């Protein structure tokens, strides 16, 4: 999932809200209806999207977070991106310094 980050606090808040709502619904549906547990990575950065593929630093970092660090079902956010989140979203995460 991708959302535009513009530097405008109100627009960015709406983007974060949409992404977190979608992720929450997806994770909840997978675990409660399908008995599947998911893991993933979340990163903020440049991304190029067209009709055939998505690529960019944020996509690569998200993949690396998921494949190297999300050993158990969970969604991991990049350390340097955590501070960019609005404070109400920071409260939703369990912080691990590793």
Key words describing this protein structure:
98 residues; mainly alpha; two-stranded parallel sheet; two-stranded antiparallel ribbon; 4 strands; globular
Can you offer a commentary on this structure?
The longest helix is centred in the first third of the chain and has 25 residues. Helix content is 46%, strand content 10%. The two termini are 25 Å apart. The protein is mainly α. The mean pLDDT is 79. It is globular. The strands form two sheets. Strands 1-4 form a two-stranded parallel sheet. A two-stranded antiparallel ribbon has the order 2-3. The chain contains four helices and four strands. A hairpin with a 4-residue loop joins strand 2 and strand 3.
Helix-strand blueprint:
Elements: H1 9-33, E1 40-42, E2 48-49, E3 54-55, H2 57-68, E4 75-77, H3 79-82, H4 87-90
Parallel strand pairs: 1-4
Antiparallel strand pairs: 2-3
Strand content: 5-15%
User: What percent of the residues sit in helical stretches (DSSP H or I)?
Assistant: 40-55%
Q: Span between N and C termini?
A: 25 Å
Strand order, main sheet: write it out.
1-4
Report mean pLDDT, rounded to a whole number: 79
Catalogue the unreliable spans.
none
Compute the number of helices. Answer: 4
């Amino acid at each position: 999932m991708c959302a535009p980050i513009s530097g405008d606090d109100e627009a960015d808040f709406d983007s974060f809200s949409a992404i977190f709502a979608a992720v929450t619904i997806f994770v909840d549906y997978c675990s409660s209806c399908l008995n599947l547990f998911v893991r993933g990575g979340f990163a903020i950065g440049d991304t190029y999207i067209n009709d055939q593929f998505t690529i960019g630093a944020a996509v690569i970092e998200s993949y690396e977070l998921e494949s190297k660090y999300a050993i158990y079902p969970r969604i991991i956010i990049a350390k340097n991106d955590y501070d960019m989140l609005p404070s109400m979203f920071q409260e939703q995460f369990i912080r691990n310094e590793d």
